[in-house]
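Lab notebook: predicted structure, single chain.

Context: the supervisor wants predicted structures on file for every construct in the current expression panel, including those that have not yet been purified. This is the next one on the list. No modifications to the sequence; it matches the entry in the shared construct table.
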Amino acid sequence: MSAVEFEELELTADDGVRLALRHVIGGSAEGPVALLLHGHGVSSDMFATEETRNLAEVLRDNGIDTYALDWRGSCRLPYNERGPRFTYDHVAAFDIPAAVRTVRERTGGRPLYVIAHCIGALALGASLTAGLVPGLAGVVAHGVFLTPRMSATARMRLGVGAELLRRAGPIPTDFRAVGLFSRRTPLFAALTVGAGRCPDPTCRIVHNAWGAGGELFLHDNLHPATHRRLADLAGPIPTWTLPHLRRAELAHTMVRFDDRDARFAALPASAVESADRIDCPVMLLAGSENRFWYDSNALCADVLAHRASSLDVRYREIPGYGHLDAFLGRGAAIDVFGHILEFLEET
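Prediction complete. Output recorded below exactly as produced.
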């Protein structure tokens, strides 16, 4: 069982939205520092699964002083269901810079790494190419970074869904909360069509990326206890973020969504075009069986080799892993986390 304990810290984003920052107790007070960024709809809990040896535990035991941010897309926070609506511009411009600044205030001049998953990595890419988080010691981006690319089917579903569902409110995850007689039951059923053979409806909708298509994990890689806790680990997804995700995927680069809002003027119109502003080593991680972002990070490695040839970029593909299971998988500590530790040690 996991023995990770957290110190819960208060954090306010630069636009006044209340976030959460968690500090892993027991890490080195003198060694390097890591900040963890989760994907959308999950939370910092994805790095601290109780039934497996998790990333927070591995980093702590290897002398890394570790913090985990719950940005506004976390299921530990209320903003996916109520409160101010947001795009990923808000995360890149307000959430990540505030977290980096706070961690630096607490840790002084020690080397700071950021390890980011999925949308957390996309938003981090925007922050980096905007010059909002300079001077990092290194970045690990899992699944996607600057060049999002999905399958043709997922692209079509995202395009249609962005128009049909943008005013529908959040897409639910936990079927127990939806129930058989809710107005959301037909939506839940429609979004789980063709979502694998697992009889658990919550597993089906998470596995099917809330209807976007593809697969978020390899089912057999999950510990049975993790599978039973999917409703706790993953929350609802707001439909109002879909247009931004669709625009970025169509462009195959992270883009600024709202060109009219002066608050986001620092964010690049195209992260790829501003890749030369990244000033730290980057490791791009991807599962060989990632059927959500597919070859996005392999593409990113190729693009950066041409557009920012002086940048230290490494690409690692993890055999037998999909997307979310690279952190939640029962064997991730052996198969995945060693690559992260090796990168931190080398840089």
